[in-house]
Amino acid sequence: MKRVLSSLLLAALAGCAILPRDLPPRPRLKTPEAAATMTVLSAEIGPARAQANAAGHWWQAFGSAELDHLIEIALENHPDLAAAQARLRLAEQAEHLARLDTQVQYSTDATLYRERYSRNGLFPPPIGGSFYTQTDVDQNLSYNLDWWGKNRDLVRAAGNETEAARDEETAVRLDVAAAVADACADHVVAAERGRDLRAARHRPAALDELGVGTGDRVAVVADNGPAWLEVDLAVQATGAWSIGVYPSLAERELVAALVPAQVRVAFCGDQEQVDTLLECGEELASLELIVVFDTKGLHTPEYADAPIRFLDELRARGHELAEERRQASSRISSSIRLSLTGGDVGCTT
């Protein structure tokens, strides 16, 4: 009973409440339009890339004339694409013929018949010996009402075959262009790695200057990548031991891996791995230097006293030392070979 009275009282109080009459109308929710959405997305990805994607030439967004030329040649001469285009043309012709059967059919036939009667035949002259010409023209107009939908089903099936052939042609075109783009990307990556490996020849000089030599232990605590390989080759060139360590190891695991090896120098990929090494503290007493690949976050004051150097610095120093050694070697003069003839030693014949 009390609950009923409470409900009635609340209803009465609510009925007495007067809402303001100047409230604005409730705003209508705006639904996104496809055209506006595509316009915004096109503005974000850039007009050149949007235009290339709309035309089906997505590779033009890279802005490489060489890549565009290679893909154009591949698309013009690839046999799989030519076969797919031939199947598409056949499907389009079959669909066109199927649609003709659903339209008004009109045909015209004309026949010309000319005969010469024999003079000695059944009919005497003037009929005998004369010519007889007969011309027939037939015009037909027809339309199939297609009560049971046979022709409509045939048109629909032919249209599906055309769409499937068009999708196949698009897929083959995409595969060919993607294969060429992948090959070009692999070539670029290989060229960059080749430059990195050629540049790695100068790294041992910088490591020598740091005192890294035969028998020393150098740890590489970083993810796999070109820099990892570069450092590994440089360490081996100095005669030191390169010790690869998982970058995801915790502090205790890292200590267990590096303390027995008495590591002097450690190469790290980023700030997180540097922090893990610094947290080891006195347990890694043999660690004298940390070289970092990625310098992000390491320019703050808290790292000012840490024994940290950056890989780019070692690269630059390695180039300087290599150039100094090259210039020094070019000034060295020494005898290599002395060739004598009979006249030189005073022999006579």
List keywords for this structure.
Rossmann fold, disordered C terminus, rod-shaped, five-stranded parallel β-sheet, single chain, 3 domains, alpha/beta
On the 0 to 100 scale, the average pLDDT is 76
The helicity comes to 40-55%
Q: Looking at the structure, what is the overall shape?
A: rod-shaped
Biggest β-sheet description = 5 strands, parallel
Rg for CA atoms: 44 Å
Strand content: 5-15%
What does this structure look like?
This protein is of the alpha/beta class and 349 residues long. It folds into 3 domains: 46-103 and 146-198, no CATH class; 104-142, no CATH class; 210-328, Rossmann fold (3-Layer(aba) Sandwich). 51% of the residues lie in helices and 13% in strands. The chain contains 11 helices and 7 strands. The strands form 2 sheets. It has a 5-stranded parallel β-sheet, with helices on both faces. Strands 1-2 form a two-stranded antiparallel ribbon. α8 (226-237) links the parallel β3 (217-221) and β4. The protein is rod-shaped. Mean pLDDT is 76; it is low at 334-339 and 341-349.
